[in-house]
Write a structure and sequence with these properties.
By secondary structure, this protein is α/β, with parallel strands linked by helices. It contains seven helices and seven strands, in the order βαβαββαββαβααα. Strands 1, 2, 3, 4, 5, 6 and 7 form a seven-stranded mixed β-sheet that branches.
C-alpha cells in the first residue's frame, strides 16, 4: 500500500505494532521518551489522552509536517484508581486480588498528530474477572507475563483465562482500538487498504 505520507507509531509495544500492521498500514515505530507520571487528582481518561498526545507530539517535533504520528496509551482502572505495572510479586498479588471477581475498566487513548493538527479519542472497556486465588496469582506471576503489564495481566496472553467477559473493544484492551484507529487515521487522509478500495468504488459509482 503506497501512502501519501509516512506513518509513525510512537510506541515500541509489540502488541500495538502487531495490531496496527493487522490493519494493512506500512509504518515505522519510534519510542517516545516522556514522563508518564500521573498528575495530582488527574482523572484516568484525561491521563491516558494526555500521554497519547504527548507521545505523538514528542515524535512529531523531529519529523516533517506531512508525517502522521500515532500515539497511544492504556490504563487499567479499578474504582477510579489507575493500576500501573507491578514492581514485584506483592504488588501483583495486591492488584489481581482487587480485580478478582470484580469489574474494572481498561481505558485506551489514541492521538494523531500531523504538523500543528492534533486529534484524539479515548475508548473505555468494562472487563469482568473470575474469582482468583492467591495461589493462581503467584503461579501466574512466575510465568513472567504480568511484570510489564498495567494491572498485572495481559488479556491476549495467559491472563486471558481470568476474563469472564468484556463489554467494549477487545483490541483496545490489548492496546490499540482497531475501529477508532482506522477512523482517526482516515480523517487525516490515511485510510486502510480496505477503506481505500471502498472510497475508489464510491468514486467510480458517483462518476457513473
Amino acid at each position: 500500500m503506497k501512502l501519501p505520507f509516512q506513518l509513525i507509531l510512537a510506541s515500541k509495544s509489540p502488541r500495538r505494532k502487531e495490531l496496527l500492521a493487522q490493519l494493512g498500514y506500512q509504518f515505522t515505530c519510534l519510542s517516545a521518551d516522556i514522563d508518564e507520571s500521573v498528575k495530582y487528582n488527574e482523572p484516568a481518561e484525561q491521563y491516558v489522552v494526555r500521554l497519547a498526545i504527548e507521545k505523538a507530539t514528542f515524535i512529531a517535533k523531529k519529523q516533517a509536517e506531512t508525517t502522521l504520528i500515532l500515539g497511544s496509551d492504556t490504563s487499567v482502572v479499578f474504582e477510579n484508581h489507575i493500576l500501573g505495572k507491578p514492581t514485584d510479586l506483592d504488588e501483583c498479588i495486591m492488584q489481581l486480588s482487587m480485580l478478582s471477581d470484580q469489574q474494572h475498566q481498561v481505558i485506551t487513548a489514541i492521538a494523531v498528530v500531523k504538523g500543528q493538527q492534533v486529534n484524539s479519542m479515548a475508548v473505555t472497556t468494562d472487563v469482568t474477572f473470575k474469582p482468583l486465588s492467591e495461589e493462581e496469582i503467584i503461579r501466574y506471576w512466575h510465568t513472567g507475563e504480568p511484570q510489564d503489564k498495567a494491572g498485572s495481566y495481559g488479556i491476549q496472553g495467559i491472563g486471558g483465562q481470568f476474563v469472564k467477559h468484556i463489554c467494549g473493544s477487545y483490541s483496545a484492551v490489548v492496546g490499540l482500538p482497531l475501529y477508532e484507529t482506522t477512523q482517526l487515521l482516515a480523517n487525516f487522509g490515511m485510510p486502510t487498504p480496505v477503506q481505500a478500495s471502498n472510497i475508489r468504488a464510491s468514486n467510480i459509482q458517483a462518476s457513473n
